[in-house]
Amino acid sequence: MTSQWVIINATWYYTPAMSDTETRWMIVAPAEFLARGARSARLNPNAVVVDHSEGELVFPSFFCRSPSPWMKAMAWLAMRNIEFRIYMLEFDLKPKEVERSRLGVYPRVSDDLLELMREIDAREVDWLETMHDKIDWALARLRETSLAAGTLHSDGTVVDNSDEVG
After folding, report:
1. Where are the domains of the chain?
2. pLDDT in tens, 139-154
3. N or C: which end of the chain has fewer CB within 10 A?
């Protein structure tokens, strides 16, 4: 069985495969700001897990089953120039759930580290660079759209102080 997206009440939901592994995506940011971003995306407050002063928002998870609010929370942070990180997590699900790996995909890894990693596994580094490019492209489009819509000043400050995102 493969992972799939299903529509329930006009909302897309991720249904993971019944396999031994699962990929998840995590945003890490200052807890206060990530909680505000999650609230603006209409997520349950329990979706953000606080660890010291940082918050974590994972998709897919019990409180974040759809990609749309996860991306809206990320957009809320990006539009306000709040620093955040994105990780790709791999979990082994059987015999019990264990995080197998965590790869930072945003912000970009330094060129020196990429070269060192390329010596170990060039194919994985190519994939990581592709992910960096896709995320950079998406964030640039988000900022351009916000500038064009008049919701973001050219210096990155938000015109409207409301917490709502798209």
Report:
1. 21-149
2. 888 777 766 666 655 5
3. N
